[in-house]
Automatic annotation (TrEMBL):
InterPro entries: FecR, Ferrdict_sens_TM. Residues 121-213 form the FecR protein domain. The chain crosses the membrane at residues 87-107. GO terms for molecular function: sigma factor antagonist activity. It comes from the Bacteria. The keyword Nuclease does not apply. Keywords: Membrane, Transmembrane, Transmembrane helix. Pfam families: FecR. This is FecR protein domain-containing protein. It comes from Pedobacter yulinensis.
Amino acid sequence: MEQKEPDYLLITKFIDGETDPGETAKVLSWIAESAENKLLYFKIKQVAGQLKKEAIMPPSEETWLQIRKKKEQPPVGARTAGKGRRYFGYAAVICLLACCAVLFSRLNRHKLITVQVERNGRAKRIVLPDRSEVWLQPGGKLDYLAGFPENERNISLTGDAFFKVTTLLDRDGQKRPFSVHTRDLEVSVLGTSFHVSDAGAGKAVIVNTGLVRVSHAGSAVRLRAGEAVRLRNKSLEKLQINPALFEGLLTGHYRFDQTGINEVISLLELVLQHPVKLLQAEKFNNVKLNGRITAPDDSTFCKILGVMLEAEIIQGNRQITIKPNRPM
């Protein structure tokens, strides 16, 4: 069924953080209506971000000198420069609205593909139109446009998934971007393998190979292999990790190599999707785990990990607690 064209000006106001509570609720409701709306919103936001960078870039001093010579005008002060920037801003808005109309038209012409895995199901391997591979975890959902029109590789993700991205080149020999959008994070890559978690407390991106850019609420970080970032208290927190350990999220085989307690906590939050509370933290300062865990389910994983830590891992409804076996 063909969609109703949205209010682009209201969406751009929302992206710039200029909407009142009523307008904000209206945009959020529109985004939540369908996967198509979510994909369109992320693409508009992507285009707006690029145009904003160009719009706020003031003309160079050389450009102003050329203008003054041609027009025989007096030196341009801050006021005139501001006016120039404002004209650039108007042009960017007009360009953005035109782009929105094109994106909306394209969205209506292409079929939306949705892949979902039941919570009690097994991870599913998906081959995308560009031959990139995704392992979607139980409870996860993936949306994308059939065939990746115009070679735009945009994915909407709910839940957890591991991505192995194929490198593609455009006509100019430049690598084509691949973007994953969740409710809170935007991940942009060129060709790499990484894990994205968008569930519970474990909102994070873990890089196995290549280079990844993760952004949230106007801030961004770049990650290389062996690095991760998690969303903590509404800000991005960068971590050093062991990629071989976190491959267990995909394979079920967790390899520990001098693994400290902070990395264990990050792993638990991703596996169990709840925040972890560490009791008597000083008892774990010197923890360096070695070995391997192969577990068919979360309960078995926690029991084996508890033995390795000499602690009890208690799974509550909203929190995981690590309690040492011997009180101080």
